[in-house]
Specification:
By secondary structure, this protein is α/β, with parallel strands linked by helices. Helix 2 crosses helix 3 and helix 10 packs across helix 11. The radius of gyration is 23 Å and the shape is globular. The chain binds adenosine-5'-diphosphate.
Length: 542
């Protein structure tokens, strides 16, 4: 027997239609790329997205065409997204922190037909556009007055282009299984791999993300996604904020402590999301200036492990709750969030920090398990760690063009490449990337645990741990430290600080000091480069 309810395809145009109808005046505020703060609202964004769709369709772009975006978080970027999806196209966010050659490789792989780009990225576009054969048009997200000089053909300013359109357009009738967006993983091993979102996965993921115990969005919230739209859909905020009518504050090109503070303060932001490095800059700025955060209630921190000291500072000094989250481009991206279940509501002090150090539990729509190398499922005891596997309606089932098939099994599980344990309450903690975990005498040592511990030392700016070959133990941990300016902690002081806080056999065999630790384009420590840098290093004791 079939249900007798309506077919109402879960397509992304419905999100912006809803926002335009129910929350037309709800503001979207940008730090514009040209400089000044700019204000618009969901009503305007919807109308301009219709114009984008109309313009693309009029110029012969077809449903299914991939349309690149090389842009910071802004209302124009949002309009472009909804316009692209609304004409049946596939937004393809490009990470401007990659090298131009990598961007060109990714655009060619996806066969991008057009590109929306910020003025700041024109030097990249100049290099990349001639290398991408499929590219027919570049739309620069600015007005005629700010249009940079360019030698490229078929380049137009966004505002001029929109000026010729009236928005009298009906959204393309996409099926919910049709592709809506694309994002490539950064490809720290091998070539980047394309993740292809569908309308259905984006809509379902936004519903999941908005929930109280997930991001906790709502119409009374003011949300600042520092996490870029090109970093896995701004963790769904670009879909979930309009879906529930949250005010959006877009940081544009500036993510330094002062710039973020200014937006948090003047726009009375209640909720924000970013990787730990952004929060490090903000906390440093707050410490230097003595400023406070009276409006901010909650920050969602993920992308890499959130150090315990960060959670503590936010809570003790600024009364801000940290929600530690984990996810992946392949998961749209949210996979787990560290909201408190009722049995944890009364936790305080170290017990609370212990819990907040974990990446949280999976929301409805994400199934999780941990397995050993033979795919045997492991228990949820908070200690036994293994490969973390996931499935759900917003988890990839394949990569574009069929790459990486070994990460997907016949039962629909996706192997995340992360190593984790899960406790009896369902809280998961990432202990490593499978390729970074240190194998010492047949046992595994978590580099993330050691890093979290080391950055808690007051003189440490950043810490990384890598495995270095050892004649007896195969591999042993080497701690790599960037000191805070003007501080000179010694190796002995750092080791003494860590002593007793981890198992003895986990203690690093040596500590080295560097000026800088290399990072990937999404702000993660680049362990491959670091291992390469220390490939000739030998432990003094070995
Ligand atoms: P990229 O490789 O392009 O940076 P993602 O942003 O999808 O792609 O990275 C996903 C990976 O980031 C995860 O598999 C995990 O290793 C790491 N990660 C994400 N969030 C966390 C977190 N809270 N703690 C530790 N690692 C995290």
């Amino acid at each position: 027997m079939h249900g007798l309810m309506q077919d109402w395809p879960l397509v992304c145009s419905r999100i912006i239609d809803y926002a335009g109808r129910q929350f037309p005046a709800r503001e979207v505020v940008d730090r514009s790329i040209e400089g000044p703060i700019r204000r618009t609202n969901y009503g305007q964004i919807r109308i301009r997205a219709l114009k984008v769709a109309q313009g693309l369709a009029r110029e012969g772009f077809k449903p299914g065409d991939r349309i690149g975006t090389l842009a910071w978080n802004s209302s124009r970027h949002l309009e472009a997204w909804y316009g692209i999806m609304g004409m049946g196209g596939v937004y393809h966010t490009l990470n401007p922190r990659l090298f131009p050659d990598q961007i060109a490789w990714i655009m060619n792989h996806a066969e991008d037909a057009a590109l929306f780009a910020d003025i700041t990225f024109m030097p990249i576009v100049e290099k990349v556009a001639p290398l991408v054969k499929s590219l027919r048009k570049v739309i620069v997200l600015t007005d005629a007055a700010h249009m940079p000089e360019t030698k490229l053909d078929n380049v137009v300013s966004y505002e001029e282009w929109l000026g010729g359109l009236d928005g009298d357009y009906t959204w393309y009738d996409s099926a919910e299984a049709d592709a809506s967006g694309m994002c490539y993983t950064s490809g720290t091993t091998g070539d980047p791999k394309g993740v292809v979102y569908s309308h259905r996965s984006n809509v379902l993921h936004a519903l999941i993300a908005a929930q109280v115990d997930a991001l906790g969005l709502g119409s009374r919230e003011v949300v600042l996604p520092v996490v870029p739209m090109f970093h896995a859909n701004a963790w769904s905020i670009a879909h979930s904020a309009p879906m529930v009518g949250s005010k959006l504050v877009m940081p544009g090109a500036r993510m330094d402590g002062e710039a973020i503070y200014e937006l948090l303060d003047t726009e009375k932001v209640t909720l924000s999301a970013a990787v730990p490095t952004v929060w490090l800059m903000l906390l440093q700025y707050l410490e230097e200036t003595g400023k406070k955060l009276p409006h901010l209630r909650k920050v969602v921190i993920g992308g890499s492990a959130c150090p315990r000291s960060m959670t503590q500072k936010f809570r003790d000094n600024y009364d801000v709750d940290v929600i530690h989250a984990w996810g992946m481009t392949e998961m749209s991206p949210l996979g787990s969030l560290g909201s408190l279940k009722p049995q944890m509501a009364d936790l305080t002090g170290d017990a609370l920090l212990d819990l907040k150090e974990k990446q949280g539990y999976a929301p409805f729509g994400v199934e999780m398990k941990i397995t050993d190398d033979d795919n045997r499922e492991l228990t949820w005891d908070g200690k036994t760690f293994g490969r973390l596997k996931v499935r759900g309606p917003a988890v990839a089932k394949a990569y574009y063009g069929g790459a990486g098939t070994d990460q997907f099994d016949d039962e629909g599980w996706f192997d995340t490449g992360d190593v984790a344990h899960i406790d009896a309450d369902g809280y998961m903690q990432i202990t490593d990337r499978a390729k970074d975990v240190i194998k010492s005498g047949g046992e595994w040592i978590s580099t993330i645990d050691l890093e979290n511990l080391a950055v808690g030392h007051p003189d440490v700016a950043e810490a990384a741990v890598i495995g270095v070959v050892h004649p007896k133990w195969d591999e042993r941990p080497l701690l790599v430290i960037v000191r805070k300016p003007g501080r000179e902690p010694s190796k002995e002081e750092l080791l003494a600080y860590m002593e007793g806080k981890v198992a003895k056999w986990w203690m690093p065999d040596d500590v080295v000091f560097v000026e800088e630790i290399p990072h990937t384009a999404t702000g993660k420590i680049q362990k491959i480069t670091l291992r390469e840098q220390f490939k000739d290093y030998r432990f003094p004791t070995a």
